[in-house]
Amino acid sequence: MSPDTIATIKATVPVLQAHGEQLTRLFYQRMFENNPEVGPFFNQAHQKAGSQQKALAGAICAYAENIDNPAALAAAVELIAQKHASLGIRAEHYPIVGQNLLAAIKELLGDAATDDIVNAWAEAYQVLADIFIEREAEIYRNHEQHHGWQGFKPFKVIKREDNSRVISSFYLQPADDQPLNPHQAGQYITIRVPVAEDTETMRNYSLSNKPGEDYYRISVKRETARRDDAPHGVVSNFLHDQLGAGDTIWVGPPCGEFTIRTPVGKPMVMIAGGVGITPLLSMLHASLDNNNDDSPVTLIQAAVNGETLAFADEIAELENKYGNFDWHIRYSEPTDNDRYQGRFHSEGLIDEDLIASVDTSADFYLCGPNGMMQHCHQLLTKAGVPAEQIHLEAFGPALQLAG
What global pTM score does this model have? Predict the structure, then answer.
């Protein structure tokens, strides 16, 4: 980008900080009206809640702030590129976004949208779009080479099982009986399902099984509305209500950058909240199954109570099998039955004392509700854990978790 473009983009940062969410609301409104064909790429529950608009506003602001330091955006670019590739976003979709974004900028700024500002953002957008297009093309090539397909292909449901009161697992194998190459522990797949006549939508679900098995396993929480004016989770309820053994579903190759980065010999601590156990369970299997590494692995599993605790039997088997694995269950609201059975170790929210009980030289992997992860990130930071040792996976739009 030219120096003039960089200077102009930098000058718009205060406006973005003050009005970023207003801009992204205008953008999405325009795009869904002008280009309804892109609707299936988006989770409408996140749109209604405003989390998608907030996440995009933060991303645009971060891009503007770091326009002269692109290396600072590398991790965010990879996260978004993996998400785009999981949904099948292609080069031809970027002009749609660009046109509606520039139109939203003009509408928001009104007479203040000078030619210099609009042209600078057009140039900056195209530079970023080219980065995403190139990286996503690499991901698609990797899908073809490593997994044998890109896009979506049919899988058959070979088994279904309930893991808790709200979580069920679906075991999937390719309908063409082709073998599966191992995924990376922590990755997710995308499924495409019909939600209405002539309408399909997509969702990402973490793979909860050990890499290298001849099936994929996704473990899905039934999402119910928290407010009367909010919808139930469309896809999660479809899966729970309508999908069973023998059915067919369309699946994309594994994606995602939330994978094990810990070198052999270094301890790992995993902190799971609710259904956030799913990618961590795959990581747990992979790390414990590594015959070259007997370093300590700790899982802190937080749940409301025993009815919502998932995979207890599976994790208990790992605890009995591996001497280097320590498992701590914390319930926020244990029932009388939980206390009678005694199958948990402590109650309340995750706190400083629990963090102090683990090795803070470890690499930490967190997955759960955003509020929980923000809380845990603050606790770890206060305990002196460096940022590079903390890895997080957010279900839904990635929000700012630090601070």
Answer: 0.91
Residue 374, judged by CB atoms within 10 A of its CB (0-12, 13-18, 19+), counts as middle
Angle between helical axes of 94-109 and 115-142 (0-180°, round to 10): 150
**Tens of pLDDT, residues 216-235:** 999 999 988 666 665 677 88
Q: Catalytic site residues?
A: 94, 136
> What is the percent of the chain with per-residue pLDDT over 90, rounded to a whole number?
72
Same domain, 372 and 298: yes
Residues facing residue 172 across a β-bridge? 157, 216
Residues of the domain holding 76? 3-147
Sign of the dihedral defined by the CA atoms of residues 210, 309, 249, 49, in that order: negative
| CATH number of 91's domain | 1.10.490.10
The string of DSSP codes covering 194-251 is: EEETTEEEEEEEEB-SPTTSSSEEEEEE----SSTTS---HHHHHHHHH--TT-EEEE
